[in-house]
Amino acid sequence: MAQGHMIPFTSLAKRITESNPSMKITIVNTPLNIQSLKTTLSSFPNISLSALPFDAARHGLPPNSENTDTLTPVHTVRLFHASQSLQPHFHALIAKLIATVRKTPICIISDVFFGWAVEIAECFGIAHVGFSTGGAYGTAVYFSIWMNLPHRRTDAEEFGIDGFPEEIKICRSHLHPNLLAADGSDDWSVFFQKQISLTLKSDGLICNSIEEVEPLGLQLLRQNTGVPVWPVGPLLPLQWLESLFSGSGLRGDGKKSGIEIEKCMEWLDSKAEDSVLYISFGSQNTISAPQMMELAKGVEFTKTPFVWVIRPPMGFDLGEKFRPEWVPEGFGENKNGLLIHGWGPQLEILQHRSVGGFLSHCGWNSVLESLSQGVPIIGWPLRAEQSYNAKMLVEEMGVCVEMARGAGSRIDAGEVEKVIKVVMGREGKGQEMRRRAGEIGEKIRRSVRDDGEDGQRGSSVVALEAFLGFLMSKRELH
Ligand code: UDP
């Protein structure tokens, strides 16, 4: 119920119906989320939308809270628990669907956080597949840590992860405060442990990853869950996927954006290749006012051209008008910087040739979008599985320098300057990171190729086919 989940779900629906036009998909969610998908999906005849009744206020949530984008942590966990109230409505919907389609096989694909959907699949004897919108490594760590709470067994700063090779260690600082405080009886543990265990009873998992991009993560996820895992990524926003498939330039509608796309592209056109740093913390996160000030000072010290999608700092209303005192005087007002308020056309920005680095919270969609364009990352993970993503980007892929970790990080302008200079550098580590990111970008593009010049089929296309083959094998159940 966050943008980072909704986007890969719609993208998956599109990939499936295009791969097999006889498939019909119903996307099920709460009324406002369904409303928000109407325009995006109106031109896909095989994808329909269905809203289940949901009254946020009944669950002690602010009115109309149907996704986590603007919720406080207390409300976020309340919304998670409240999502279980959809179960009887979903049960009724599946019963109706089964009566309508009779002998056609049905499969429920649900977010790994909605394990309760497995109980409905079991009840009707139909297939169920969990969908992790994250990467394989991040998902494997996330599952293992929530299920085993390893930090409860030790006082050490650094410790192993159950089901992982011994040499892979995690630090307390990787764990979000909710997880650090979790003891198995708190609201977060109760929700995640139950939903993850249910999800592990699925017939398989779909993962927003690519076989050759995350070999270790996929090996661990398969080994630790014991179910088939189909890496059918990259499941990126729809217009982004179009451009990967067709090789055409991008043109979003820019409706939500805080800047007209043309203006943004014009600004980027005026900059040298790989010279611009793009800064954004995703769809849900903001940083504190002092952090924002230090970050801005550090960026300014480097004289690196930048585009920053800037939001009011923590503690301010997200709709609050931008205040100049949040950043150093004159910041972003000269030719060297572009501040975009609220929401930016991230897809188009990352695809522009002048963008050479991404300062990101390491949300998985942002990671895939960046790497698919060969753009190295400066990581500042803030929550969820983002710090595990950053760990993998640094240790396994060598495409990231972690600048800070967690919402409470102390940010120092001098340190910011150093890291940016390394990553944006034309030589040494920066150059090597860019080379590696370029290689991964090539792998990502190859993975979605269906009939390349060499007749090779991409691994993502093959994985999707394997998943559809699995669905067909379930036919005899009906
Ligand atoms: N996004 C965007 N413009 C913004 C912020 C985010 O287009 O100003 C998109 C971004 O391209 C990505 C998604 O929102 O597809 C964010 O997902 P991610 O997994 O990176 O982070 P989350 O928002 O879930 O923390």
From TrEMBL:
PROSITE patterns: UDPGT. It comes from the Eukaryota. CDD domains: GT1_Gtf-like. Keywords: Glycosyltransferase, Transferase. SUPFAM superfamilies: UDP-Glycosyltransferase/glycogen phosphorylase. GO terms for molecular function: UDP-glucosyltransferase activity. Its EC number is 2.4.1.-. It is an enzyme of class 2 (transferase). The keyword Cytoplasm does not apply. Belongs to the UDP-glycosyltransferase family. This is Glycosyltransferase. It comes from Stephania japonica. The lineage of its organism: Eukaryota, Viridiplantae, Streptophyta, Embryophyta, Tracheophyta.
